Amino acid sequence: MKTLVRAEHIVTTFPVDRKRRFAAVDGVSLELRRGEIVGLVGESGSGKSVTSMSMLQLILPPGKVEGKVFVDGFEGDTLAFGADSDQVRQIRGGKIGMIFQEPMTSLDPVLTVGRQIQENIMTHLHLPKAEAKARAVEMMKAVGIPDPETRFGQYPSQFSGGMRQRIMIAMVLAAEPDVLIADEATTALDVTTQALILDLIQDLARQRDLTVVIVTHNLGLIARYADRIYVMYGGNIVESAEKYELFDHPIHPYTHGLLAAVPRLDAGKRHMLVPIEGLPPNPADLPPYCKFYDRCPYREEACTQGPCALYQAGEGHFVRCALTQEALADKRGRLEGVRRLMPDKTVSQEICLEVKDLRMDFPIYRGLLKQKVGEVHAVDGISLHVHAGETLGVVGESGCGKSTLAKCVMRALKPTAGQILFHGEDLGTLTGRKLKRARSKLSMIFQDPFSSLDPRQTAGSIVGEPLKIHGLVRDRAQYDARVDELLRIVGLDPTFRDRLPREFSGGQRQRLGIARALASEPDMIVCDEPISALDVSIQAQVINLLIDLQARLKIAYLFIAHDLSVVKHISDRIVVMYLGRVVELAPAERLYESPLHPYTKALLSAVPVSDPHVDLARERIELRGEVPSVMDHPAGCAFCGRCRYAMDRCRTEAPMLRDQGDGRQVACFLYEREAGERDGREGGTEHGEA
Amino acid sequence: MVKYISSRIGQMLVTVVLVSFFTYILVDIMPKDPVYALYGPNITQEEYEAGYRALDLDKPLLVRYGMWASKVLRGDWGTSYKHHMQVWKLLAPKIAVTLYLSVLSAIVSFAVGILLGAVTAVKRGKWQDTVLTFLANLCASLPSFVVALGLLYLFCIRSQLLPTSGFTWPWVDFGKHVRQLAMPLFALSLSGVASICRQTRSSMLEVIRQDYIRTARSKGLRERVVIVGHVMRNALVPVITLLGNRLAYFIGGAMFVENVFSIPGTGSLMVQSINFMDVPVIQAFVVLSAVVISLAYLVTDILYVAVDPRISLD
Amino acid sequence: MREKIEARAAHSGRGRRARQFLRALFHRKIVLVGSIGTIFFVLIALFAPLVAPYDPNVIDKGAYLLGMSPLHPLGTDLYGRDLFSRLVFGARVSLLTGVTATLIAAAAGSLLGIVAAYYGGIVDKILLRACETLDAIPYIALTMALVAILGNGMLNMAVIMCSTCVPFFVRMMRASVLSILNSDYILAAKLSGQSEWKLWLKHILPNSVSPIIVSATQNVGNTIMMESGLSFLGIGISVPMASWGAIISEARPYLTTHPLYVLAPCACLAALIICLNLFGDGIRDALDPSLRGETA
Prior knowledge:
Distance between the termini of chain A: 42 Å
Structural class of chain A: alpha/beta
Mean pLDDT of chain B: 85
CATH class of the largest domain in chain A: Alpha Beta
Strand content of chain A: 15-25%
Number of strands of chain B: 0
Radius of gyration of chain B: 24 Å
Oligomer: heterotrimer
Helix content of chain B: over 70%
Number of strands of chain A: 23
């Protein structure tokens, strides 16, 4: 295979202050060959995005890129040409196209999307305006945008996130580049949309013999789509290999750690995750030796003797570690045995929370005058219950109403209809002292560890606030002791109690949030996407903490998240939501092994498993379209527009949630048959009408 | 869009009516008796009472306001206490001068301010940025009359390059117009240029950081195209919204400059009117300037919607 | 690394944060210059009777319009009063009106802003409309109209000038309270059962106050500028008080013959306003780096 791009020892530095600079990328060499899909994987701050931007010289001053980049068709080191030179501009867009993470902000909001595509075509293919327009429309069609002629003249704000990312792809590919860099291009999208977009990129790459670089933190995506993988940490490539080689024989301690820290959809629920201890490195404060040293379970004295070199561990397999392959394998044998089992927990039959036919409508205001134009049924008749000490997982894509459900349960919103019974008392009717007591037994952990802590309160007073509100301590000494204890429970140093939230890292802040939730000794905690803002290696720490706390303190969780793997790992039972309704409810293992609802199946298949062999063997269900806007709620089943089994009945009548025995419930007409007929049938394809 | 504009016009009318009502109440709060003010202090009891009725002071406030407003709508702003002539005739030529000066100064401020702001943003951290930003910070809050006096001293008294005072319309004598206007316009626009420059700079720096600018760069566009076609287009949206606010500021500032350069605008008339408590003139001026400024805000809002598709589409 | 964290934690929070704030404030030299200038003017205003060599209001018919001399460092005015002393006392008038007006405006504006945000609905609409109405009148026309009604004592002047900047504070406070009310940490406190008034006292007010402080510092310069402008037009603070604007107005006819008489108060005014603004910008940058360079 021909090499298209070769980067040699890229060092990208940014100033810390007047004198010092730090290297966000510290000597990265890589090459991209024609037609392959390369994965560049790492956590935030690993330098993966900076690496890809450095190759295109998109780093703005005062940032500085050193090293060499050779691009096929251009003489010599392209870094030497300078960022605004003709050659580099030809490479950008013309040779190497790039799509970015945030589809909502990556397109110019005041220009029509058509014009932005046209601009790219005219710059690189030098076509006249009319031809460029024709080609733009053609490209929009190729990436699956319906009615491209009309949509050509629309603005980015008129497109959904997934559609905008398609526009980006159309724009980049319109100039016929050889290489496409997708920098976390699907991170902000829903799981099913993510699968659609990456499938599209994969298909286009095959058709056009395009080289694709997928830059991501998600190991599953890499396992599913990439051919060859570079693993980055602290500005270095720590390991690189062909996909199967890397997943079958990972060598570097960090790669190992990453693989063990991420919950897998196909894994059993017996073991805890193995988190990578410590914090992700601060790029401005990296040691001159192995960047992973502080967090590495294999570390030795020898590791601190200067930077370690890359060595070859197999064919096309390179590792950057001070320890040899054999030494690492030897140590691994001894460390592997200590993988923890999940703690035993007791789920009682007592019902802690019961939600009965909950509805929550919001008015929609539109236009310049903000007139009310209708209502959104954000939660559209939901019933569920949570036993004491149990974890009920709630999954669904954006707009499915899972956060609204959480807010209703917490009585942060007053539901339009329905009841929320907490220990048998209707939260909606409680007032005064009774409500306050209920509040002390029901806490919440928020998604955003930055906005959910008062920036002007110290850690101690944030954690201690519920103690004072509910009069749980008698005096100052008891208060101090309890705050220290809470901080210790969540793994924070009690001497940090005088610090402000901004002096903590994201993971530590989330621990503070958990400590606050625990302060009033609740029976139940509503966790609204508690880990989605955290880095992969930190997620595992927080998940383990939550599991341990549950076993120790016998708390019930209502665990809301969009990441099915995480929800499956932590939950006893799982509720799947779609556009304000529950479509399926089942025990976690059963849901994974034999999902019933077509949406659940599609959702499961969209989630990649971080093992390429397993992932390849799984059934892939392609979903039509994207999650519709909450405002265009179909008359019948909410899913009918995207369902391949949709019947006429589905379009007019909404299916009820029905018990299927063995603790499973599903809302689908496919399962409205006699129990006997249903048995042994898989998915009910026979009833399908396309 | 039509609906939006008509509702904004409705809002504007409400504002103007409120302003006019408050200014009308002035007559009642003002310590000066309007009858004596109009006819002089040396009148008989009968004359006083006749005048009292002639001014409709015997009627309730709201009725009087209604009568005043209906007259105003017909273009009758009443009679000046001091000059004993129709307020409109007195005010119109002066308002024309003040408006001319303020609008011109708004144009200059926006044109030069945006240009300099763009230079500072593009050359961020270079000496051009340092110098211009420093100057802008110094000048943004200098009172216009201080600048005017300084200019007067430098260009008229020390070097006698420019005439010290007066105002000539351009169609009367263009050369003289330019020479007379140079200093007042500079004095009035300086702080405007400086603050628009600062605003443009920060707005552009904000836009330059945006993801879509990185997208534009990654497409291989020339830096000039990126700046003009993408950065400026987005960065000017918030700058344009300052138009109404700035115009209000210039109408106020014009009074000082007119005072220093003896320009026959509203400035000196207003000072006289305040000192003489010439209520009808004050009322007319306040209401008229409220109309002008509300119009400017209206235009700003419409421009805003027209320039930024996000607002109308949301 | 670890030792450093512990060493930092050992310091008590408040003192450390105060030091951090000061370091951030004086990080830029220009802010230091502005702050020193501001302190200089404040000291002069405070100790005016000690600094001024003469009584600023004593008329000496024999010594009018003198030039610079060891006896009168900046000469005398048309009534023979010592110009330097008048300028020194003028600093008092300017700073006092500026600070008073700003304090009143910030207090009243914040209160109304909180009321608007708290009650919402019709109260909010009325307050916003009132602000819009005030904004539609050019500040100079508004102040003139108010001077005509209230007269021009020093306290009146302060009230009048604050009326022109109240809408700004109302809007700012309203916006910041609304955004705080929508934040997750307020939700978190509510959900823990925190009572309404403690919610405001502990969380909302402390978090909404810093933008108000920033704008207030920046507003002092504006008010001083406004006051001097009105005095210059002859409708500001009444004459016996030696306001800089009034001195300039009085000296205006002598620009040709006695430029120093006009330019000295002009220079004082410009210097004070510039120093105040540099200081205000510094406070803004130190309190909230994200606001950097945003004010018009």
